[in-house]
UniProtKB/TrEMBL annotation:
Gene3D superfamilies: Mediator of RNA polymerase II, submodule Med31 (Soh1). Component of the Mediator complex, a coactivator involved in the regulated transcription of nearly all RNA polymerase II-dependent genes. Mediator functions as a bridge to convey information from gene-specific regulatory proteins to the basal RNA polymerase II transcription machinery. Mediator is recruited to promoters by direct interactions with regulatory proteins and serves as a scaffold for the assembly of a functional preinitiation complex with RNA polymerase II and the general transcription factors. It comes from Trichodelitschia bisporula. This is Mediator of RNA polymerase II transcription subunit 31. GO terms for cellular component: mediator complex.
Length: 106
């Protein structure tokens, strides 16, 4: 079946966005993004807002771990969280919540 969606290195935009949004469930990656000051870039913050479409059931069904992924996506909408993820205790609390959610989802 042919698609009119352009491919980027053989992947569709949706596939690339799906892979990226799933990385947001990793607190260490969020900490890395904050340390790189990505959350201070208005275009990146807008992109995180755009990715909210993954909250819709028709897209959420593709997430491997929807609980931690959607929770992180929700938290990233808050400026205070984007700042606080640099704090080790905040990162560890998010990690613990994610592990608990992931083990009860399956």
């Amino acid at each position: 079946m042919a698609t009119t969606e352009p491919a980027y290195a053989g992947y569709t935009r949706f596939e690339i966005e799906l892979e990226f949004v799933q990385t947001l469930a990793n607190p260490w990656y969020l900490n890395y993004l904050a340390a790189q000051k990505m959350f201070e870039k208005p275009a990146f913050v807008e992109y995180l807002k755009y990715l909210q479409y993954f909250r819709e059931p028709e897209y959420a069904k593709f997430l491997s771990y929807p609980g931690p992924t959607l929770r992180a996506l929700e938290l990233l909408q808050q400026e205070s969280f984007r700042r606080d993820i640099l704090i080790p205790e905040v990162m560890m609390r998010l990690f613990d919540e994610g592990v608990k959610a992931a083990t009860t989802e399956r």
